[in-house]
Specification:
The structure holds 2 protein chains of 2 kinds. Chain A is of the alpha/beta class. Chain A has helices at 25-40, 57-60, 66-74, 86-98, 120-128, 130-134, 139-153, 159-179, 193-203, 227-233, 262-275, 292-301, 310-319, 339-343, 347-363, and strands at residues 8-14, 49-53, 80-83, 104-112, 217-225, 238-247, 282-286, 325-327, 330-334, 378-385, 390-397. In chain A, a hairpin with a 4-residue loop joins strand 10 and strand 11 (390-397). In chain A, helix 8 (159-179) packs across helix 12 (292-301) and helix 8 crosses helix 13 (310-319). The chains are: A alpha/beta, B alpha+beta. The interface between A and B is medium-sized, with 30 and 38 residues.
C-alpha cells in the first residue's frame, strides 16, 4: 500500500498504569483521550468518531454502555463503537478511514482491573479458556504449560535448560530497566536476576512472580487521521503501514501446536504481505509479554529467529546486553516502555500503550527513553487477546520509511 | 456459578468426557458437534459419538498450581496439565486428584509427564452450600497407582436363570485412610462425596458385569449423606453412566430414585430390583442398586461425636438380572419398628445417636429377628450357611450378633471389613457381601442381614452359581485390593476432618 493512502497517527496520550483507586474507568479514558487531543492541538468537537476498547468492564465494573459515559463526559454525539482490545478498535478505525468514511477519529482503550481484585483471576481464566478453568487451570498455568511444551518440543535440558531459565529472567530484568525511564509505568524500579530466580524458587516452579505481567488500571488513546488530513496537523505523521490479525482455538490444549502461538505467526504473515516492507527494517518492537515466556516465543512466532532458538539468542545477547536484541544481525529494541511486565497490563489499554511507545520513538519524542534509529526504521506491535486466541500485528513507519 | 443451564451443559459434557469422531477423516473432538471442521458439509450429521470415560490417557505436560483460582482454593496445591487420548487425537486440560501436596514438596514435572492416567469422576470446585454442586471428570489419577485402568467390555450373556440374582457388583473406597487403635477408616479426598462414590461404584459394577449400560432399566441409590436435601444422586448416576436407552436430547430412558433408611437404604431395594427384573411386563432387564455414603459424624466431644471414631467413606453397587447370574436370591425377610436410635433432623449437619437404644433394642433385636425368620422359613441351621454378612458399624456388634446367631468365625470374618474401611453406612453390609462374593465358591449359601437405624433389617439368602468364578477375572479393583494396597495414604485427624468436610465454600 502506498504510504499516502495509509491512515496516520497524529497524536497519542495515556495515563499512568497501576492502581487508580480514586478514578472511575470513564475518567481514565477521558484523561488519556484529552492528552491525545492536546498532543496535536485538536478540539474534541473535531472528532468524527470514537473507537473504544475494554476487555471486560461490564464484568469488573458493571459498566455496559461505555459510549454513553463518554458521550456525557465529552458532550459528543458522534458515532462510537466498542471493541475488546485496543488493536481491534484500532483496526476498525483504520478500516473506516481507508474506506473514506471518516478523516479524524479517536481510538481509546481502558481497563479497571483492581476494582475486582478478589475475583479477577477467576474472571480472566474463565474468559480466556473455560474448559481449562473448569479443570483447575489458572492464568499462569497456561504459560507454564507452554514452557513445558517448548522444552519438550526442542528437547532442552541440562545446561541449556539453565540458559533458557536465565534468558527468561533477563527478559524481566530488561523490561524493568526500560520502565525506569517511563513516567507512566506501573513499576519504576529495577530488579535483579537473583530476585526473579528467588521468586521462582519460592513457588518451586519454572516461572515466578517476576515472570508475569501485573493486574493494572489505565487508559491510552491515539488520534488517527486520513493521510491527507494528517499533514495539515503535523509534519511527523506515523503511518499505519499494515495490520494483520488471526484467531486460534479458545481451549489451549486443543491446539495442534502448543510451543508457540499460531495466531501470531499468521498475523505477522498477513501484516508483512500487506505492508510490502522488509522485515529487517523493523527496529522497534513491542510484544505482548503477559509472561517472559511469551516475549521469548513471540520473537520466534514473529519470525525474527528460528523456532526453538530464541532462548539461545537471548542468552547470548544478555551476556553483554546493549539495550537491544541482536537477532541474526538485526538490532531490535523490544518493549522499550517496560513491556506488560513493568509498564503494566490494563487489557483494553495495553495495545494503546504499545502503539503510543512506537509513535513516540519513531517521532523522536520519547525523551529519556529515546533510542537512536534513523528515519527509515519501522516499528511493529504485537497485541494478543486471551492466551494467544487472537493476535494483531501492526507495522508503523514515518515519512521516510 | 449458579446458572443452571450453564451447569447442565458443562456437566453433561465434562462428567462423561463426551466427544465425537469424524468417520470420514478420523479427526476426534472433545464436546459434541454436528460436523467435522476438516471435512465440512459432507460430514454433516455423520459424526460418531465417543467418550473417554473408560479410557486411558497420557499426561503430556504438567505444572504445579500453587495459587489456584478462588473456586479451587479449597483443593490446595495440585498438579495440572494436558492429558492426551487416542495417541494424541484428543487433548484435554486436567487436574491430578488424590494428592496432598505440601508447601515444601518438590515436584519433578518430567517424572510425571508421559505417564498413563485414568479419569475420575469428582466435584469440580467449591461452591456455596446453596448452589448446584459442580462435577467433572477432567480429574485424573495415574493408571499404575491405586485405581487401575480397567476396560469396560460389553458381553452378550450366555445363560438364562429361573431365579433372579446378582449379575455384577463394584466396590469403591477412596485411597485415603485414617488409622486409630484397631481401625482403619476410608477418608474421601476433598473433591469426593456420596455422589462421586456412587458414580464410581456404578462404573465398577458395569465393568464387572459386562452388562450393557443401555439395558439397565432402573437405578436406586441409597444414602443418608446426599449433599442435596432435594435432588437425587440417582439422576447423576443415570446420566453419567448412560443408563437405559438413549432417549435423545440428553435424556436417558431409565427410572432413577434415591432411597433413605439410614444404613439399610440400599439393601432394602434388592428385593424391589429382583422383583422388577422378574416381572415379565416391566421391560427392565437389569436393575442397579447403589449404597453410597460419606458417613457423617460430629467432631469428637460434640453431641453425636462418638460416631467420629467409626465413620468411613465408600459405595457399593449391585446389578440384578436373570442372565449370567453369579448369586441367585433365594428369599428375604424384612423387619421394621419405629425405634429412634439414630437420626438427623433437616438442616442439621451431623446425625445424633440415641445412646442406650443403639445396641440391644435396635441393632441386635432387628438383625436377629430378620435372620431367624428367614432361616426358619428355609429351615436352615447356621451350619447350612457358608457365609454370614451383617451390618458393620464397628467390630464388636457384627461379631457379637454373628456369634449369638450361632455362626463361627470362618462364616462371618470374611465379610467383616469395618476395620479396614470404617462404617460406610448404606454401603457397609453391601461391601461385606461383595467381600464374600470376591472369595466364594460356586453353590455356596450367603446370609446377608442389614440394619438401618430408625429401625429395620433386611435379611437375604443368596446361593452362588458356577459363573461366579468366570466373572471374577473382570474386576481387579476388589475389596481385598482396596483394603491392602501399597498406594493407600494415611492422614492425621485434622486432615481427615478437613477432607471429609469437602469442597464447601
Amino acid at each position: 500500500m502506498s504510504k499516502k493512502s495509509c491512515p496516520a497517527i497524529i497524536g497519542a496520550g495515556r495515563t499512568k498504569f497501576g492502581e487508580h483507586y480514586e478514578k472511575e474507568p470513564e475518567k481514565l479514558i477521558e484523561e488519556a483521550g484529552l492528552n491525545a487531543l492536546r498532543s496535536v492541538g485538536i478540539e474534541r468537537k473535531d472528532l468524527e468518531a470514537c473507537y473504544i476498547s475494554d476487555y471486560f468492564l461490564p464484568l469488573t465494573n458493571k459498566i455496559g454502555l461505555e459510549e454513553g459515559f463518554l458521550s456525557e463526559l465529552l458532550e459528543l454525539h458522534i458515532p462510537m463503537e466498542i471493541a475488546r482490545s485496543f488493536s481491534s478498535a484500532f483496526v476498525s478505525a483504520c478500516n473506516a478511514i481507508l474506506a473514506g468514511k471518516y478523516n479524524l477519529v479517536l481510538v481509546g482503550g481502558v481497563e479497571k482491573m483492581t476494582d475486582r481484585w478478589d475475583k479477577i483471576r477467576d474472571d480472566l481464566m474463565m474468559l480466556e479458556d473455560p474448559w481449562s478453568y473448569y479443570a483447575g487451570g489458572t492464568p499462569e498455568a497456561n504459560h507454564e504449560l507452554m514452557l513445558r511444551e517448548y522444552i519438550k518440543s526442542y528437547d532442552i535440558h541440562g545446561g541449556d535448560l539453565e540458559k533458557l531459565q536465565l534468558a527468561l529472567a533477563h527478559i524481566s530484568v530488561k523490561n524493568h530497566a526500560n520502565a525506569l525511564k517511563n513516567e507512566y509505568a506501573q513499576y519504576r524500579r529495577s530488579i535483579t536476576v537473583e530476585q526473579v530466580l528467588k521468586a521462582r524458587k519460592a513457588v518451586k516452579k519454572m516461572l515466578g512472580l517476576y515472570d508475569f505481567a501485573p493486574i493494572s488500571d489505565g487508559a491510552a488513546a491515539i488520534i488517527l487521521a486520513s493521510s491527507e488530513l494528517a499533514e495539515s496537523y503535523t509534519d511527523k505523521p506515523i503511518y499505519v503501514l499494515a495490520s494483520g490479525s488471526a484467531t486460534d482455538y479458545i481451549t489451549f490444549p486443543f491446539r495442534e501446536d502448543r510451543a508457540g502461538f499460531l495466531a501470531t505467526r499468521l498475523a505477522m504473515e498477513n501484516a508483512i504481505k500487506m505492508a510490502e516492507i522488509e522485515k529487517k527494517n523493523i527496529r522497534l518492537l513491542e510484544v505482548y509479554d503477559q509472561s517472559t515466556v511469551v516475549e521469548l516465543i513471540s520473537l520466534e512466532d514473529l519470525g525474527f529467529v528460528e523456532r526453538g532458538t530464541a532462548w539461545k539468542h537471548l542468552y547470548e545477547n544478555f551476556q553483554d546486553f546493549k539495550g537491544y536484541y541482536e537477532l541474526n544481525g538485526q538490532e531490535i529494541f523490544v518493549n522499550l516502555n517496560g513491556g506488560l511486565k513493568a509498564d503494566g497490563n490494563p487489557l483494553g489499554a495495553t495495545g494503546g500503550a504499545q502503539i503510543y511507545e512506537i509513535f513516540k520513538q519513531l517521532r523522536g519524542e520519547a525523551g529519556e527513553r529515546q533510542v537512536k534509529i534513523d528515519d527509515s526504521c519501522l516499528g511493529c506491535a504485537l497485541e494478543l487477546e486471551g492466551f494467544g486466541t487472537k493476535a494483531y500485528v501492526h507495522i508503523f513507519g514515518g515519512d521516510a520509511a | 456459578m449458579s446458572s443452571e443451564p450453564i451447569e447442565r451443559r458443562v456437566a453433561y459434557i465434562g462428567d462423561r468426557l463426551r466427544g465425537c469422531r469424524c468417520p470420514l477423516c478420523g479427526k476426534e473432538y472433545f464436546n459434541l458437534r454436528d460436523y467435522c471442521g476438516r471435512c465440512g458439509e459432507k460430514s454433516f450429521g455423520k459424526m460418531e459419538e465417543i467418550d473417554l470415560f473408560y479410557e486411558k490417557g497420557t499426561l503430556e505436560v504438567c505444572t504445579l498450581i500453587t495459587e489456584p483460582t478462588n473456586k479451587f482454593k479449597k483443593i490446595g496445591r495440585f498438579i495440572y496439565g494436558i492429558v492426551s487420548f487416542h495417541n494424541g487425537k484428543i487433548r484435554l486440560p486436567g487436574r491430578l486428584t488424590d494428592r496432598i501436596i505440601g508447601e515444601n514438596d518438590e515436584i519433578d514435572f518430567s517424572s510425571l509427564e508421559g505417564r498413563e492416567v485414568v479419569p475420575r469422576f469428582r466435584r469440580r470446585y467449591a461452591v456455596k452450600r446453596s448452589e448446584i454442586i459442580p462435577t467433572i471428570s477432567l480429574t485424573f489419577t495415574f493408571a499404575d497407582e491405586y485405581y487401575p485402568y480397567q476396560e469396560y467390555k460389553i458381553a452378550k450373556p450366555n445363560k438364562d436363570y429361573d431365579t433372579p440374582g446378582i449379575v455384577g457388583y463394584g466396590v469403591y473406597v477412596s485411597k485415603f485412610r485414617i488409622k486409630e487403635a484397631f481401625m482403619e477408616r476410608a477418608v474421601p479426598f476433598i473433591d469426593e462425596d456420596a455422589i462421586t462414590a456412587a458414580v464410581e461404584a456404578g462404573k465398577l459394577a458395569l465393568i464387572h458385569s459386562s452388562v450393557d449400560h443401555k439395558l439397565i432399566g432402573k437405578i436406586y441409590v441409597g444414602s443418608e449423606s446426599n449433599p442435596y436435601a432435594v435432588k437425587p444422586i440417582a439422576s447423576k448416576v443415570a446420566q453419567v453412566l448412560k443408563l437405559g436407552e438413549d432417549a435423545a436430547e440428553g435424556v436417558q430412558g431409565v427410572d432413577a430414585v434415591d432411597t433413605e433408611f439410614a444404613c439399610k437404604a440400599a439393601t432394602s431395594m434388592f428385593k424391589d430390583a429382583v422383583s422388577l427384573v422378574y416381572y415379565p411386563k416391566s421391560n427392565v432387564e437389569y436393575a442397579m442398586v447403589i449404597g453410597a455414603d460419606n458417613s457423617q459424624a460430629a467432631p469428637r466431644g460434640e453431641p453425636g461425636g462418638e460416631l467420629d471414631f467409626f465413620v468411613g467413606y465408600g459405595a457399593c453397587t449391585f446389578i440384578f438380572g436373570m442372565k449370567d447370574v453369579i448369586a441367585e436370591i433365594e428369599g428375604w425377610y424384612s423387619v421394621t419398628s419405629d425405634t429412634p436410635d439414630f437420626w438427623r433432623r433437616d438442616r442439621e449437619p451431623y446425625p445424633r445417636h440415641g445412646g442406650r437404644f443403639t445396641g440391644d433394642p435396635a441393632y441386635f433385636k432387628h438383625i436377629k429377628k430378620a435372620a431367624k425368620k428367614l432361616m426358619d422359613e428355609f429351615r436352615l441351621q447356621p451350619q447350612d450357611i457358608d457365609y454370614f454378612v451383617s451390618h458393620q458399624p464397628n467390630i464388636n456388634f457384627p461379631t457379637k450378633v454373628a456369634k449369638s446367631l450361632g455362626f463361627r468365625e470362618e462364616q462371618f470374618l470374611p465379610s467383616l471389613k469395618v476395620a479396614k474401611f470404617g462404617n460406610t453406612y448404606s454401603g457397609a453390609s453391601p461391601i461385606g457381601l461383595a467381600a464374600v462374593l470376591d472369595k466364594a465358591e460356586p453353590h455356596q449359601r450367603i446370609l446377608l442381614v442389614s440394619y438401618g437405624s430408625g429401625a429395620g433389617s433386611d435379611a437375604y439368602l443368596f446361593t452362588t452359581t458356577s459363573q461366579i468364578k468366570d466373572k471374577r477375572q473382570k474386576q481387579k479393583f476388589t475389596v481385598e485390593y482396596q483394603a491392602e494396597n501399597p498406594f493407600l495414604e494415611y492422614v492425621d485427624y485434622a486432615t481427615y476432618r478437613k477432607l471429609k468436610r469437602g469442597l464447601e465454600a
